[in-house]
Design brief:
The structure is a homodimer of 164-residue chains.
Chain A lengths: L9 E4 L5 E8 L3 H9 L1 H7 L6 E7 L6 E8 L2 E14 L3 E8 L7 E11 L2 E9 L3 H8 L3 H18 L3
Antiparallel strand pairs in A: 1-2, 2-8, 3-4, 4-5, 5-6, 6-7, 7-8
Pfam families (chains A, B): AHSA1
Organism (chains A, B): Streptacidiphilus fuscans
Protein name (chains A, B): SRPBCC family protein
């Protein structure tokens, strides 16, 4: 296999609606990408900026389940997050809520869609909505972009690493 | 106690953001209103339009819990709903997701706030957000208003009924 360039992560703020849309393609079949999205031992390898490690208190990824995790730098907790999994459709769709505990009144609803592009490639689109433009813009200003982009680069490696 | 007029239920669609805001005052202390909102045997007495009865498959109202219920007319199921409780703050705030199973891809995120107005009165405000104006407007066109207004009128009776 020849090396391909790192796919671009596109992060878009809608001017009309307080949403953030993240789009990213992965060079792996959909079943493999979905598995890396749901199994905590895999998620823990890629989530978030590359200088942080992730510890799960709960990760019950099923319709009606919930999660809570903390991110650490050099063993010190720097952030924690929690939410619920509203719906999980195998290999297709995950709908979840999300709160960064540093902003306890903030909450977003995100829908991740997994698209089979053929040729063992997969597109993941996450549409997150906040209930105001101020809240949405606060998230964009928080530095989430680096965490997302670096996380997906780590995920590229995870997807290669556990291939048969 | 003299009879007061039935309080108005205000349902507002924001022109700038795809939200629905429902505001209603209740002639009962906040602890009592909150209890009627969380205990399934009470919720089942008031939820939804007055010609329907509610059956809970699940009602686990706690942070990270979930719910599913069906509404029946003359014993026949006419609608079902499910979601997750993202956050529950006693007597103050409930954040939950909501899907009407007749529109399986539709989902909203709602934040209910319970305000103590003094004089044994309580204001409940629910701010629900959809991820598009089309989805939000579809909910408004679905006849939800009658269900909400009639439900709260039944809740008035429940609040009186279980007072000490």
């Amino acid at each position: 296999m020849t090396a391909r360039p790192v796919p671009e992560t596109v992060i878009e703020a809608d001017p009309e609606v307080p949403t953030i849309r993240i789009t990213r393609e992965f060079d792996a079949p959909r079943a493999r990408v979905f598995r890396a999205w749901i199994e905590p031992e895999l998620v823990g390898q890629w989530l978030g900026p590359k200088d942080l490690t992730t510890k799960f208190d709960t990760w019950d990824l099923r319709t009606g389940g919930n999660y809570r995790y903390r991110q650490l730098r050099d063993g010190q907790e720097v952030a924690s997050f929690y939410g619920s999994f509203h719906e999980v459709r195998p290999e297709t769709r995950i709908v979840q809520t999300f709160t960064y505990e540093g902003v306890p009144d903030g909450v977003t609803l995100g829908t991740a869609t997994f698209e089979d592009l053929g040729d063992d490639r997969t597109r993941v689109t996450i549409l997150s909505v906040a209930d105001s433009f101020a809240a949405r813009d606060g998230i964009l200003a928080s530095g989430m972009e680096r965490g997302v982009v670096e996380g997906y680069e780590r995920l590229d490696a995870v997807l290669g690493a556990y291939a048969a």
